[in-house]
Amino acid sequence: MIRVLLTTSLLMIAAALSAQTVGKVTDPVDWVNPLMGTASKPSLSNGNTYPAIALPWGMNFWTPQTGKMGNGWAYTYDADKIRGFKQTHQPSPWMNDYGQFSVMPVTGKMKFNQDDRASWFSHKSEIVKPYYYSVYLADADVTTEITPTERAAQFRFTFPESDAAYVVIDAFDKGSYVKIIPAERKIVGYSTRYSSGKLENFKNYFVIYFDKAFTSANGWKGNELLKGQLEVSADHAGAVVGFKTAKGEQLNMKIASSFISFEQAELNLSRELSNDSFETTKQKGKATWNKTLSRISVEGGSIDQTRTFYSSLYRMLFFPHKMYEVDKTNKIVHYSPYNGKTLPGYRFGGTGFWDTFRALYPFLNLMYPSVNKEMQEGLINDYKEGGWLPEWSSPAYADCMIGNNSASVVAEAYIKGLRGYDINTLWEALKHGANNEGPQATGRRGVEYYNKLGYVPYDVKINENAARTLEYAYDDFAIYQLGKALGKPASEIDIYKKRSMNYKNLFDPSTCLMRGKNQDGKFQSPFNPFKWGDAFTEGNSWHYSWSVFQDIDGLAKLMGGKEKFVQKLDSVFTLPPVFDDSYYGGVIHEIREMQIANMGQYAHGNQPIQHMIYLYNYAGAPWKTQYWVRETMDRMYKPTPDGYCGDEDNGQTSAWYVFSALGFYPVTPAVEQYVIGAPLFKKVTLNLENGKLFTINAAKNSKDNRYVQSLKYNGKLYTRNWLSHSGLQLGGELTFEMSATPNESRGVDPADYPFSLSTAKQ
To answer: Which residue ranges does the record assign to the Glycosyl hydrolase family domain (predicted)?
Structure first.
């Protein structure tokens, strides 16, 4: 009986803790779990993330490295050993890394090979925060600590008593260089390793200083120790320096890098670290994270919801990362991967617009517009130096994914109020990309067919043709919207408005789904709407048929009207998770993630369908959006190593959660509307960059109370299913009256539906 009572009591305590609500958060960075999403592998992604120890949008990140050199899965939660501490710029394991090298302490035998030097570790002796990392390396009996700045970092190694304490520098293979300068307790070097595209004169230069003299210094290459050799240039170069240490002695190391030169790396180090101690850098990093994360304050959620929110927000504040530096005259300069030169101005790298145009960039425009302004200036430099806007930068043009979604990223920024940069050059860049096929997935593949026929045909050996057509049509809409905002003449922009309707060319009335079409105008046959890939990108027709961001009302009419449209949306969740993987010749991880989610054909782990839940608002059934938004937040996200339901992808999957937790989502980025869902917290405060506050109240919010009974905007009853970006920027208050039962009479009037091109007043 006592045992039963104790068990019951413990269960009650656990339930109470999980339901406990969190009040005002003072240090949001301490709610972040950088390990969220790290329990991943190629066959099943729970995020495919790594713990990024860095500052927001920093030029350099640091991560403990459990995988082998060149392995995109640099850190996986189920690994037992750490091989080094790696400077990384990796946007995704599938894209892999660039500008990388590592450091690793060892003791006893002089071990420098990545396998020999690897040490067992435990998560129980690991502290992981965005601004600080610490771990105990059991084989070396050394604790390693890291704290970063944007372009530099401090390391602190706590050694045992040893006459044979070492720090290994590994500049990686594919061409590297190191030089040890004992008189200055210094090491310099560079790495040339990168994974995507073609980079001109690419080097990641690094400089390292220790606060203790070396007792030994040796270079190495490959698996060969070069005794007494202080300078090494090889395919795979490295250095190992030795020390005599007392028990508990702390060895400090300062490190910085540059894409420009050794001199610039030195400048980055002196400017960002100066004479700061490790603790000072750590406190500055914490303050920077708290300031950046505090733009949004959430209250009244559970402990897990609060952790998930700030962990997701953390993931949104990395890519694209800064690739610009500040020279000795305090001017902004950058290395250009297109010509290998150092040029003036901003530049960013490491993101794919196919993912991030959907919600990540809209979030930047809402909460961090000055950062996106710098990014827009960086895009101008991409175009001037490389001739194209990137669609995937890693860090230059990468041949990955489809679409011409730079159009959305550029158009949305201007439409939502960004100014003070050369928008006319970007306008020319958009037109150039829309009407030409470029290298490395830039421009539009199949553009001649698309412009002539109104679609990319299925039978002309251009893969993912239906997906390309649908995305090009939305991108044309974005160009049209920007042209209108810039006051361009109808003779210049009407063609893009016309092409915005090209989605209709692929609509198959017999299935009410999108379907590939041959050059002769006949639909592809046979057609299996559950077939992944082929005419679509990392999805099937059930996923891509909703990719008509610009004209949902027009899509609903094609499907037979509002009621049938809603039924079709419902079908996504009620269909079994069957699939045809024959295009890939096996089950790719995106398929598996849909199959195991128990949400039918809804594949939230990948981007094409993530906006679909919000489409009920366009057909008079907003309560169904409210149900599925909350269901997806509750089931698909946790603040744990397996906390995502697919690739996190440069902040996009996190941005879906963060926007949805606020209570709205940017279905059509190139218009200034957000479609309303159901907020997650009892109170959210947006601290807008212009100094205004926008407050979202939902006092009765709970796990059961997920439905919006009524909505007030600045105290007045509000019936629309959308909010305006410009309205939010004025500040104000949105008050949700939440209930456990849906209000099926609110949001049903077509006058309250969000924007659709075919019904908009022109």
So the answer is: 264-739
